[in-house]
Amino acid sequence: MSNSGELFPKIGQVVNETHSNEPDSTEESPVTEIDSLCMRCHEQGKTRILLTSIPFFREVVVMSFRCEHCGWSNNEIQSAGEIRQEGALYTAKILDRTDLNRQIVRSNSCEITIPELDLTLPPTERGQLTTVEGLLRDIIQDLNSDQPLRRIQAEDQYNKIQALLVKMHGMLGNPDDLELAGSEPSRDPDSPITPFTLKLDDPSGNSFIEFIGSMSDPKWHFRTYPRTFQQNVQLGLVAADDEEGKTASSSGEEVSKDEVLVFPGKCSSCGHGLNTYMKRVDIPYFKEILIMSTNCDKCGYRDNEVKSGSAISPQGKKIILKVEDQEDLSRDILKSDTAGLAIPEIDLVLQSGTLGGRFTTVEGILNQIYEELSEKALVGDSAKSEDKMSFEAFLANLKSLINVEREFTVILDDPLANSYIQSLYAPDPDPNLTMIVYDRDWEQDEELGLNDIQVEGYEGDPNAEKKDKEEKEVKPPSPETAKEDVAA
Hints:
The structure is a single chain. By secondary structure, the protein is of the alpha+beta class. The chain has 4 domains: 11-79, ZPR1, zinc finger domain (N-terminal domain of TfIIb); 87-234, Sandwich (Jelly Rolls); 260-308, N-terminal domain of TfIIb; 316-448, Jelly Rolls (Sandwich). Helices cover 24% and strands 29% of the residues. It has 11 helices and 24 strands. The strands form 6 sheets. A 5-stranded antiparallel beta sheet has the order 8-7-10-5-12, with no helix packed on it. It has a 5-stranded antiparallel beta sheet with strand order 20-19-22-17-24. Strands 1-2-3-4 form a 4-stranded antiparallel beta sheet, with helices on one face. A hairpin with a 5-residue loop joins strand 14 and strand 15 (288-295). Helix 3 runs antiparallel to helix 4 (155-171) and helix 7 runs antiparallel to helix 8 (385-402). It is globular. Pfam families: jr-ZPR1, Zn_ribbon_ZPR1. Belongs to the ZPR1 family.
């Protein structure tokens, strides 16, 4: 690129340079063309390669092939960024036709599952940038291509796949259209579709499915998870014959406040050995917590986690902080992995478990939220312009809160009361800090697994004492006892 020394310029800049270059121009084109062999007619075709970066996502390599002799064309997308520290699992509920327009970025290590069909698409050799509807139509095209041959050679397989195709056409809103040539999408936005669930499981963390509006989209869910040793082997991060990390041996001795424990283990990113450090910390006017820190010297992976070091609280706690100036942003905040966070002024809602446990400042956790959201993408033709503008406006509003350009409220709701925001006036009341203690309902206890906890009689049969009482109540009197009662 003549005007930019970047290896991965933004896609908008690439488009402008492509249109500005004249056919006879001597300037270097942003698109690289390579002669390639067509695997259908074995003539020479053209492969075009473009290095670019997608805003709010990451660097990608876009490749397109076309053969002028037979008309065969193909395209794929590959991530040029680093492999994420953890795997990613996206789940989207597709309930109406607008959900079919959700963008999908699928890397070559991503596994796609549709539970309603018992259908699993394993990782492929090439990535893909498409929509939910485009993904379904590609699956239908692949399954439908060999149906005439299956009908003759394997009728059972033909019938099973045909039943699957009927269900997939219902998911597209065309239940009566079983021919691919006539499967044009219905333009009626109110036409019903068969609801289904779409899951993207990518150990590399480089796949994505679009949310609508914000991350509080009720039909969209995202979580990260540590990779297994086998997944690291499949991604090429570690050799298959590497020794597994040793597990830490625990002792029954109490951990002192000044003692730092070291647990040898394995890096969840690269699979090499590392140490996890743990220390007890006593937060004034709160409770004891355990801080764990992990740092890998091989790949640079870093992580920290906070756990409560005390008993489970019988009640939940909601903490409301009114942020007015930079001093409020410097308050310490402990967000446990069971706490949810909300900022009503910008309609930000983080469900419990998002970001895990964190011990930082208010400014630090807002920056973490901004970094997580700014990596998400709303790209492609089917991404509505109003959705893009709404998402960009949301990020701008979040940035303005980080700069304290206006007052806002941070609400931390923890059903286990293991979260904390520093009071600047402790032990006196803080005018900007409100704490509300409430009783958990049955659903919250069930989600936390508290309804099944047994603290008495767990050495044997938990119902043994109850059974003994029932037997004593219904046990008939002995003959000696009966004679004594008659004599009396």
